Amino acid sequence: MNRRVQLGPVDTWYGEDGEGEPLVFLHPGGVDSRALQPNLVALTQQFRVFTPERRGHGRTPGVPGPMTFEDMVTDTIAFVETVVGGPARFVGCSDGAVVALMVALRRPDLVERLACVAGVFHRDGFYGTWSRSAALIDW
């Protein structure tokens, strides 16, 4: 089922399919949730899967100003609080893994379990190219 929700300035598109415990599945950067499609059949057999598209990706338009990981984390937290309604499992791919990890660091009460796929594992590879707010995380 395809839906929309207003999260602050972001008119967020998301998919919701399956039944069971909630799982928030975060897509890689530069693509949208359609990139996750091959995995949804298996996941929706066990979980209620939410696939929000981050600002400036796919069917979620961008908003004025820079796009930072910090903003995407704030949007994701608002999504979980507003749509999911409580703690969830998270799976993030690439940039989605970075967002999922940052959500877990900022709001561990919202993350029941966390799987990061092809995410950054050490800041040395990206230090200085991330948004300033993401670089300030205490590693």
From TrEMBL:
<dbReference type="InterPro" id="IPR050266">
    <property type="entry name" value="AB_hydrolase_sf"/>
</dbReference>
<dbReference type="InterPro" id="IPR029058">
    <property type="entry name" value="AB_hydrolase_fold"/>
</dbReference>
<feature type="domain" description="AB hydrolase-1">
    <location>
        <begin position="22"/>
        <end position="132"/>
    </location>
</feature>
<keyword id="KW-0378">Hydrolase</keyword>
<dbReference type="Pfam" id="PF00561">
    <property type="entry name" value="Abhydrolase_1"/>
</dbReference>
<dbReference type="GO" id="GO:0016787">
    <property type="term" value="F:hydrolase activity"/>
</dbReference>
<protein>
    <submittedName>
        <fullName>Alpha/beta hydrolase</fullName>
    </submittedName>
</protein>
<dbReference type="InterPro" id="IPR000073">
    <property type="entry name" value="AB_hydrolase_1"/>
</dbReference>
